[in-house]
């Protein structure tokens, strides 16, 4: 079977985890500190690591004082985690439409949903593509909003000659098992906002004041103080040791992802029943490869691919349709959703796999 996505793990990660296990200090300590330094050096701004991308978003919101009674604009077409992070902070996610060409937030629709309670916008860099980030930042500036970028898919992507995370307000990455790099599970917050960094250092570990510094020295605070609600969201040395090795391999993962996505683009370009999402793979490091299938043929193609041993996905079930969040309809998002299909993409695939997948697609239409 050709897998939709997977972790790509070698002896380096196995050795790194083994070394942490042998040291018998598994919690947050020197490996986490090193991984943070490595991420920070790669991106060029301070980075804080946590146990998931969801936690990164949640903590970023809390550190911006966004919570009860506040509203956050976010596209409905995203992973449930973006919505759950917002509601976990106490704020309300306000579901917005997406632009049909690149599946990033539709600012005209977002504008209609602004209220006095709107405190932030959470653009989701769908498949690694930040869309028109410049417009998002001018929209935010005009309306006095914080920008918390959900860059779970976008580690290594470039926007206007700059790495995602190296500019802007706050950027959150995910390092879960199938992301552009992985730490098993994990995430990071990257920002120049010192207040946000310092608060997250505390609230990721039960809100204990300045405990991170001690943990980095393999110590902990015994006579402690807590200034606000915190969480057990810190990263462990086991996770960080995987992340450190994955970051070293990032360039080759990136090259492979781009190469495979470009091949899909080339082979599917002429298939009239398929619409390719508008993404420039010279700049974007793709996390997934979504396509739109025209004329209600999505489910037919899905079944055909599965019957030929090809695992596919649908990214994503719109969040505004979930009972917990539902309150209105978003016709454009619902229409796009019914056409969406995600094809396999991960660095262990070869060009021959993509050839085969495209042959099966062409045999259907
Ligand atoms: C768009 C998006 N946001 C947030 C997350 C959350 O990341 P994590 O799985 O690390 O919690 C994901 C993970 O898949 C995601 O795809």
Sheet of most strands: 7 strands, mixed
Provide the spatial order of strands within the biggest beta sheet.
1-9-8-5-4-2-3
Which strand-content bin applies to the residues? Answer: 5-15%
Number of E-state strands: 12
The helix/strand order is: HHEHEHEHEHEEEEEHHHHEEHHEH
* Count of helix runs: 13
Q: Return the CATH class of the largest domain.
A: Alpha Beta
Mean residue pLDDT: 97
* Residue share in helix: 25-40%
Overall number of domains = 2
Descriptive notes:
By secondary structure, this protein is of the alpha/beta class. A 7-stranded mixed beta sheet has the order 1-9-8-5-4-2-3, with helices on both faces. Strands 10-11-12 form a 3-stranded antiparallel beta sheet. The protein has 13 helices and 12 strands. The two termini are 22 Å apart. 39% of the residues lie in helices and 14% in strands. The model has no long low-confidence stretch (mean pLDDT 97). It folds into 2 domains: 11-96 and 103-248, Aspartate Aminotransferase, domain 2 (3-Layer(aba) Sandwich), CATH 3.40.640.10; 250-364, Aspartate Aminotransferase, domain 1, CATH 3.90.1150. The structure holds pyridoxal-5'-phosphate.
